[in-house]
Amino acid sequence: MSAPPLFLFGFTKWKTFVHDWFPHNEVRFVRIRQWPFEFELYWKKQLLKDPRTKVLAWQYKGPPNLKEFCARHAIPFQFVEDGFLRSVALGALRVPPLSLAFDSQDMYFNARGPTDLENILRTYDFDSDKRLLERAAAAREQLLASRLSKYNSGRSLDITSIYGAKKKKRVLVIGQVERDASITYGCSKKVTNNDLVRLAASENPDAQIIYKPHPEVLEGTAEAKSNPELVRNIAFILKQDISLADALETIDHVYTITSLSGFEALLRGIEVTTIGCPFYSGWGLTDDRQPNARRNRKLTIDQVFASAYILYAKYLDPRTKAPIEIEQALDVLAKMRTEVRG
What we know:
Elements (H helix, E strand, L loop, with lengths): L4 E5 L8 H4 L4 E4 L8 H11 L5 E5 L7 H7 L4 E6 L16 E5 L12 H8 L6 H17 L13 H4 L6 E5 L6 H6 L6 H11 L4 E5 L2 H5 L16 E2 L6 H4 L5 E4 L4 H7 L3 E4 L12 E2 L12 H12 L1 E3 L6 E2 L1 H16 L1
Parallel strand pairs: 1-2, 1-3, 3-4, 6-7, 6-9, 7-8, 9-10, 10-11
Antiparallel strand pairs: 4-5, 5-12, 12-13
Helix pairs in contact: 4-12, 5-12, 5-13
């Protein structure tokens, strides 16, 4: 008997790593660029041929009515995005991810409605799962000790050689790829990286403002829609892709729109201001500028970490092709980084 079909919508052709994640399925890549009527005339019939069919969509790159069609016909459906511990290089360089996030409701960064991740954060009974919180605390310490991040392309160095001697409060502004969907769906108003720098400078007039552009912008694989040179008079702009762990050294306050880097700052006990509504805001840990009425619960940092990094994200060893847990994922990622750096 043939393997159950798994249809991939919105996945670019280089994402062949999906075969490793679903070795027991017949993985079928659906052409990204389709005629408007192609889904109606062809793919609907294909999805209904086998009752074992499952569907994945990379972010929102599938047909606009794909999720609704699957729900109507009881076809299992999930959105997919890179996880929170991705790789030792940028996704734009086509490096397979170590972790992926699967969500049956929406993309985890979409603040407009509930997601599987938000539901975990809202409803999980942490009081009855002490073992989970013990794992979360240990994994968080492992993450901090290893100085790993989502991307690990930046080189490590003595931050004093970049920032200089610390003489006053330091505020780090985290730049993002401004066309990124996490901003589009996670921030209710239009905000550029330069807007964020100006806000941080205006609210911290006596502080040293440091602006860290996104690694993809520094690498030239993503366009900077707001010119960093226009805020050079109020901020020190990092010109090289240094590791996030190093960039957060000696920092007192972080400003971000929706970046995961804000959560990594929280893990280090740094005050964080969020202009948008990332998954980790609204739980009493951040200075929130965009309220979310659904998030009416106070959580600890380990509870949020456990929800996102243990209960929600999934991990796969890129070498053995075997599913692993976060503890093993951190070990694998650390070894890969050592090998890359020599």
